[in-house]
Amino acid sequence: MTEAKKLFIKTYGCQMNVYDSERMAESLGTKGYVATDTVEDADMVLINTCHIREKASEKLFSDLGRLRPAKEANPNLKVAVAGCVAQAEGAEILRRMPLVDLVVGPQSYHRLPEMEAKVQRGERAIDTEFPPEDKFDHLPERKAMRGPSAFLTVQEGCDKFCAFCVVPYTRGSEVSRPPERLLAEARNLAARGVRELTLLGQNVNAYRADGYGLARLIRELSQVEGILRLRYMTSHPNDMEDDLIAAHGDCPQLMPYLHLPVQSGSDRILKAMNRKHTAADYLRVLDRIRAARPDILLTSDFIVGFPGETDADFEATLALIRKVNYGMAYSFKYSARPGTPAAEKPDVNSDVADARLQELQALLGAQQRAGQQAMVGQEVDVLYEKAGRQPGQMVGKSQHLHAVHVDDPSGKVGELARVRITDAKSNSLGGRRVG
Ligand code: 5AD
Ligand code: SF4
Question: Which ligand lies nearest the alpha carbon of 330?
């Protein structure tokens, strides 16, 4: 038998990239690759990239530069670049970086085995097409499972064209996977011990296939034996339809957690961003979701320093945050992305944007800490994901996606435990098992 080849993967960006990296590893598994976590003994290094902000794509070139000594030490080492930077700048990567052997976009990685064979023949391979065939039909079945919580990509691409965002260009237009395939993948994952599924899509609540919307898909997935919890991300406020809001109220497997990005609280900026909703529209949607599920934990994304953002616009964002009271949120300084409409407009002064980001993050951080503190004394359900660092301790997630450390010497991975929260640290909760 030939010795297994070793694959080192580095993943940047969103959960969908995490999912894609797993599927690429499985695909290369058919060519004899097994995972390694050191570059030094790898036969192939694959960098799965993100293009969403400038810093994300700069990282690729510095990573590639740092691979030079490894490639010199082992001339047989193959270097592959995948993901959205590969999609957007594939030819440029090959031109600038002679050490790169393979470039593959997010829609064509089912072709990795043939591309790998080409690379082994000493050629370079690039595929950044949006092929007519569905990659998911050509990928191997899911085998290895690391834990009880898994991602499931149900939808890809985005037709919204927010003025700042590269996703509609790098991931293409919206495509939803057929429900029967998703149900089959979910059954397969459940049989391998998965208890929680997070349904992924760039615009997941626009899911639409064979008469299904996201709500119907969630309801059917909730009937799959072994699946105890469902979540989904990322959503657009304009696609929060009645049946999906209703599902938050009456589908017990759907967890009380919703990531619903608003980006800004200023109507002027929302319009310039091409978000196609106002702050009041967004707040109305949240009111309806909270009416259906009062304990829901809300999270969002924010961009500060979007071109034209004034102090008053920024104040409107702070006011919206105060009104909503988020359990958690991601916030970013605007970065101009080539090819997007907003990139044509003059930037806000960088120091002003930095100061706004700090102020916004201080407010969001305070809300997050208060939300965690308010859990102390309450009982939550924790899905154990792994053993903790302390002996006799398990670590998992509550229904609100809080990380919880639980003293439970007989706890097992994959178990759902009733836990009383006893303390709140900065990024996690502590508790003891009560049932
Ligand atoms: N600059 C800053 N943040 C951005 N995002 C998307 N594009 C940009 C950009 N050009 C943020 C948005 C989005 C999240 C995934 O990344 O907040 O919701
Ligand atoms: Fe980008 Fe999300 Fe807007 Fe689509 S909805 S363009 S993915 S920010």
Answer: 1
